[in-house]
Amino acid sequence: MKNKGILIFLLIMAAVIIAVFVSEFLSDRPDRSKPNPFAYDVEEFKNVDPELILYEESKNFKIGFEVPAAIAVNNNKIYVAGDNSLKIIDLSGKLLAELNLPTKPQTVEVFNKTIFMATENRVFVLDEEGNILNEWEQLDENSFITAIAATENNVFVADAGGRRVIRYSEEGEKLGEFDGKAEEGVLHGFIIPSPCFDLDINDESDLWVVNPGLHALENYTYEGNLRSHWERTSMKPEGFSGCCNPSHFTFLSDGRFVTSEKGLVRIKTYKRSGEFEGVVAAPNKFVEEGRAPDLAADSQNNIYALDFDKKMIRVFEPKNNTGL
Amino acid sequence: MKKIKYILYLLIFAFYLLPSHLSAQQQRFPKPEFESGYEQPSTVTPEPRALSLEYFDVLVLLAVLSLVTWLILKKRSRQGVLWVSIFTLIYFGFYRNGCICPIGAIQNVTLSFADPAYAISLTALLFFLFPLVFTLFFGRTFCAGACPLGAIQDLIIIKPISLPKWLNKTLGLIPYIYLSLAVLFAATGTDFIICRYDPFVGIFRMDAKFLMVVLGISFLLVGMFVARPYCRFFCPYSVLLSWMSRFSKRHLTITPSKCIQCKLCSNSCPFDAIDYPTDEKEVVKSGLGPKRFITYALLIPLWIAAGVFVGERSHTFLSKANNDVYLAELLISNPEIKNDPDNIDVQTFLASGKTMETLVEEAGGIRQKFYYGSMIAGGFIGLVIGVTLLNTVVFRKRQDYVPQKGNCLSCGRCMDYCPVEE
């Protein structure tokens, strides 16, 4: 046959055409739809290179709260607030005292044996016996206190509802407030889509505030002027993702940052400069889509994470046991 | 004068106020900064094509149709047609991305009849009608140079082979089946399958799915040897054009005056669309013409009945192409699929707030439409098969080489072979 080659070619092409028609017709059905290419899939980011994990979980203890609220470590004691009480625990997990609180706590801070506890819009000052030493003026109804940081003569309160930081004296006298805004076009101010707004004071008495919408940590003077900041937006371990991260942070004894994130729950450490250092706890340690643990650290650089989902304190020690 | 001054001050004030107001409208959240080297594209919202430009497209179509008709009937210039088809390929193909086209407009017209809530645009209607009107008077000049799908195939014909008559006839049934299904699917609001399976639109837009690229390339590869395979054996619009062309008074002629029976044109048509002079003696000698004609004529009702039966039997399968029907069946047979968060269609249905009862009721209505529609489509295909068979035994006396009015694409190749001058 003269055109045998062409005919074979045509037959193959005809088969291809029919196959394409049939497979295209059968492929686009509700139970055979292709995976959503725009699906929010963070699975790959849950896997962390083991070499990046610098800490290991050494112990954990249940705290017996239905609704744990906050954690602080001071003078080798753990202060954990929840339900309507505050428990003082030693570093091995032994309960030293349990103080009844006048109302449901949101956050707790301890400085020089003085306990600062806040509800949504009021700060209470207590001693270690549970006596209320002072009850500060109530903030407005939109306020939502999420963190307190105290140093000599200054107490800073993070008000997520008012998107501001309020500065008080130790006696509760309001000394000022700031919202992180500067001249137009330079700073947005604090961007706080959800009540995740943390602040803390480091070993050099520098005030650092999280700007969660910007994935930034910002260093302010006590008067509220921005001094420096660093930010990392990334789904990778080096950065922060989502609407409001880092949700919590604390300082190690040498001024390094420890951060915790919600959504893709993980705890990480950063150098004083903001450079990523390593992972304390990878996402597989936590409940999927869980809350960001509240953080505290002791003088040995052990990290205490209040796991809201598992309702326990989880202690992470540096792997090399040298305090890194 | 004072008033003017006052207005002037107001304008100056507004002028200074405006930029400061705009700069205050800052993005609340920063865009994520990916660290993979990926650059965040800026958001673009494409504007719909302006109505005036749509009418301009209609004008271009009209101009191209007129020009091709003039080149074929008056100028008898194959080369002219070729240049026009290159323009068509560039304008309607690559520039207008193959849309809108008269072939797909079949579905818009059908849906406008079937769904009172659907209003067809004037442009789509004109695109559907103009080629048919031209074909009714002048033959398929639209196929010759005004169709981008035809143009892209026409340019890659390398070594056309002649197909056996039986194969030509058999493959020639596909456009009827395709048209039936396209009308059925459009009328039931299921799908616009002509657009979905358009093999060349992906090439025009350069963003087709892989399978559609394979389809387009396959058609082009086939087209190197079987000239314009999509036009001849798939195009549903060709059915309507073929019907119109049969009635065309001023169709292309191979010879400008009297045929001298030189046979030079006999192999000129790559589409096997030239009828040869008939040998009456042979037909009479076979003696089978009248008997076959009667038999085939009597068989037509049977073909129609068979088509209706097949349509009735297949309506359930065909209706599954409708997403509502398929979804209803899926949710009834696999209720647990409601818990599958990855099934977008199911999750979309659940999020819509529509109840299962409503879905099933709607699916039932669509299936009922498919029931009648499939039988009509089946009956139509049966009729086409019966008439096609009947045509094979109808004797038409021809003394010259003439183009088959129905199948001739008016490309003008045969004219170049004719030595007769006007």
Automatic annotation (TrEMBL), chain A:
The chain crosses the membrane at residues 6-26. GO terms for biological process: proteasome-mediated ubiquitin-dependent protein catabolic process; protein polyubiquitination. Keywords: Membrane, Transmembrane, Transmembrane helix. Signal peptide: none annotated. Gene3D superfamilies: TolB, C-terminal domain (2.120.10.30). SUPFAM superfamilies: 3-carboxy-cis,cis-mucoante lactonizing enzyme. GO terms for molecular function: ubiquitin protein ligase activity. The keyword Transmembrane helix applies. This is NHL repeat-containing protein. It comes from Tangfeifania diversioriginum. The lineage of its organism: Bacteria, Pseudomonadati, Bacteroidota, Bacteroidia, Marinilabiliales.
From TrEMBL, chain B:
Residues 250-279, 399-422 form the 4Fe-4S ferredoxin-type domain. GO terms for molecular function: 4 iron, 4 sulfur cluster binding; metal ion binding. Keywords: 4Fe-4S, Electron transport, Iron, Iron-sulfur, Membrane, Metal-binding, Transmembrane, Transmembrane helix, Transport. GO terms for cellular component: plasma membrane. The chain crosses the membrane at residues 55-73, 80-105, 117-138, 166-188, 208-227, 293-311, 370-395. Gene3D superfamilies: 3.30.70.20. Pfam families: Fer4 (PF00037), Fer4_5 (PF12801). This is 4Fe-4S binding domain-containing protein.
